[in-house]
Amino acid sequence: MDFLSISSTMLYTAFILYLIATFFFGATIKEKKSDKSKGIAGKIAISITIAGFLAQIVYFITRWIASAHAPVSNLFEFMTFFGMGLVFAFIIIYFIYKLNILGLFALPIAMIIIAYASMFPTEIAPLVPSLQSHWLYIHVTTVSLGEAILSISFVTGLIYLIRQVDQSVRSKRTTWLEIVLFSLIVFIGFSVITVAFNLSGYSAQFEYTVNNSNNTITTDYHLPPIAGPNDGELITGDKMSPLFDAPEWMRGVDAARKFNTIIWSVLSGLVLYGLIRLILRKRIGAAIQPLLKKVKPDLLDEVSYRAVAIGFPVFTLGGIIFASIWAQIAWDRFWGWDPKEVWALVTWFFYAAFLHLRLSRGWHGEKSAWLAVGGFAIIMFNLLAVNLILAGLHSYA
Amino acid sequence: MKNIKCECGHVNPEGTVLCEACGKPIEGNQHIDGNDKKKLLNMRYDGSARRSQTYNKSIVDKIWNFFSSVKIGVWLIVTALIASAIGTIYPQEMYIPADAVSRDPSIFYEDRYGITGQIYYQLGFHNLYGSWWYMLLIALIGISLVICSIDRFVPLYKALKIQKARRHASFLSRQRLYSETEHVTSEEKNKIVSSLKKQRYKVTDENGHILAEKGRFSRWGPYVNHIGLIIVLIAALLRFTPFMYLDDYVWVREGEQTVIPGTKGEYYIKNKDFILETYDENDERFQKAIKKEGMVPKNFQTNVIVYKESGETIPGEEPELEEVAEDEIRMNHPLKFDGYTLYQAGYQLNEFTSMTFKVHETDDPEETSLGNFKIDLTSPKPEYKLDSGFRVVVDQYYPDYYLDDGEPKSETDYPRNPAYVFTVHPPDGSEPEMSFVGIGKNVDATGENDYKLGIQDFKMRDVSGITVRRDYTLPLFIVGALIFMFGVTQGMYWQHRRIWIHPTGEGILMAAHTNKNWFGVKKDIERMIADTDIKMVDDQQELDD
Fold this sequence. Notes:
Chain A has two domains: 3-122 and 129-167 and 282-388, no CATH class; 199-263, no CATH class. Chain A has eleven helices and five strands, in the order H-H-H-H-H-H-E-E-E-E-E-H-H-H-H-H. Chain A has helices at residues 3-30, 40-67, 75-97, 100-117, 135-164, 172-200, 255-280, 284-288, 297-331, 339-357, 366-388; strands spanning 204-209, 216-221, 227-228, 233-234, 244-245. Chain A has a three-stranded antiparallel β-sheet, with no helix packed on it. By secondary structure, chain B is α+β, with helices and mostly antiparallel strands. In chain B, 28% of the residues lie in helices and 32% in strands. In chain B, strands 4-5-22-23-3-24 form a six-stranded antiparallel β-sheet. In chain B, strands 6, 11, 12, 13 and 21 form a five-stranded antiparallel β-sheet that branches. In chain B, a hairpin with a 2-residue loop joins strand 19 (433-438) and strand 20. In chain B, helix 8 runs antiparallel to helix 10. The radius of gyration of chain B is 39 Å and the shape is elongated. The mean pLDDT of chain B is 89. The chains are: A mainly alpha, B alpha+beta. Chains A and B meet through helix 9, helix 10 and helix 11 of A and helix 3, helix 4, helix 9, strand 9 and strand 12 of B. Chain A: InterPro entries: Cyt_c_assembly, Cyt_c_biogenesis_CcsA, Cyt_c_biogenesis_CcsA/CcmC.
């Protein structure tokens, strides 16, 4: 067995272990809480989580050996590492606060991220010259650890909101909370639909021209084309033709295909969400809320703030300072307003504002929880949208 | 100055909310921190007298108060955040892709993004981060940083220095963590004091009034990190001066030597060789990825020698050069010498350096040479005389030939795709003939030429694009970043915890405050009162929502 296959087996193992651990964290809700002895379910759950984390460490090391460079060089590797960082940050916070409910939310979110990552090309790719530096792993690992810790504040913020938002009547807050939950489901929808069509081996090819130039580009759809390339021509004859063309301004390379993927993700997310609503017969938030009765909201608020307080310096170090040092060495300037750099700055500004708002009265509790959700949205935007939509120097995926 | 004397005897400066010594709320000032409407005291700056909350008469006061507001600071940050994000909607001017129809922003944005692109350009968002208003925004954040910090640091420092262990009972009861215990033995008191010391608290005892404190230095974290940020902003400002910051670019051809721009003619660079390597597509490890994504470059490298002019140079004479450095410049491996740094930044493959042509008879299938000539493209001549008596005149020369609507033109001045219009004058004095010769092209103007020109040989070379940098502001950025990291760690990873004990006859009042991590201070107190009958503190926090 070679390192690469050990590596993928271990990643798979980690995923399954996180799944099992989630069930055990779920079981802690039912446990009678006695202050002296922590329930056995919680102990099993955290042990399985640590086992899963170790499995993922093995994945990381074996892949590093197989590729001869730190496996953080493309979207699959980076997102997977981010998921691992999230589990790591959760384990740290767990040992400070012993908060079982955190596992019930943090692990599924880590799993969604890892599953999502696996939908991107997983082949070992060689490093382009600009990435050939030790700063690759110094910068990327610190940045994603920082973002992972900051994401814990999202996890606790989300729990806080589900716990606290009044579900007896429909309101703006309940709607927004459902939107947040729905967004997470969209990621699941994307993974499900991609796996389904990959298994069926679907492929439809289009020819189209970009940016008024004369060269024709071929793009390969792995999902049936709802939106085809603008003025594109289907060249694999037996496949369905697009329902409509992508708008004219979407003229970037593969823009239409990405747009099509987004449509599919949202649609499958809607179907999943609809199914869940049909089964629950109430808002998802309202369905989870009773499970969270025992959790103390002020503790959630504190963990959320603490996660930002711990994560912010790590993020600054990795995402701004190490990033600048490397950019100075590789690209001859430490700051160049590349979209990825700008969004790191936006993230930094956001959490700086968050920390300053915590100084004032009135910004603790629910408002703070909403902010934590917003911060996570910015982190995910920088991770995904900047790579997939706003092309720049960092679009390695 | 209207100083306020507290009942404990301490004289507080005007605007004090909580007596610096005993913490008793000072009547008439409670609205300042909003204590009048709440049960708990606002402990943010220990109730010290801040200038911004005390004076509001002169224009200076008003400006000071404006910038010292955290609310204004947050608004400035949020505005900068939104502005920065807007700048990424479309690429900034410097990132207009090379394949664009035109790299002129007035054409590019409208051409590629239509009406929204045009609006984006007209609003100046194509150069957002260099715009006056963006820089002003950052400057305002800088001013806010300075004023906020001074407004809070000075009084807070004083208040924490003056604070006494003996605190007013109402100060304790209005803390978030508070308890009253009616009977406490002196044995228990000793126990808690020794436990606090064991937990590395600094304990002050003033006639039975106890103050246990740790991590006060974390309170200075925010001010330290703000100093770091100010230094970074100053460094950014200094970059606008050419002495502190030099940014230039030079193209050097293989085998050539050229002066390094920005060095006042002092330094020369010689390009020995440019190397471009790609990954082996048969490499087992990367095979799959390369098959899917195409060729991947492995290395861009220029082997250079840097020379420095030595001694006096006499105008018109070749300068005397002395070797300073010889190195391989690669990505992630720049060359440094005498404060300058050279980076591998660009390349151009296969520029022609020389071409050799031969003349032969059009209808000779053997194409036997009737003489040849060599054009040195670094210094092309207007005409070439061949030994066999032929004379070839260069009528037109297109270094980088392309057809623009049927009309031959040159895209650049560099010999990347040279093409010529020649006139051949045969030795026998007959009519001269015109022909067009380029790479893969050989056109006979009339179709009746007796002689034909063919490319016999050519030489090519690569060109390296090298960035030249000298940046004296870097050390300042590094110092600023270090101070920032130090301050932010100091403020975030440590907490300022205080526990007060106030004796009341038989019993005690106990209260605690921390600037963050309440969970931690509660744990400290639990440990402290273990094996005693002292009551655990209640958390009186009022969640605002």
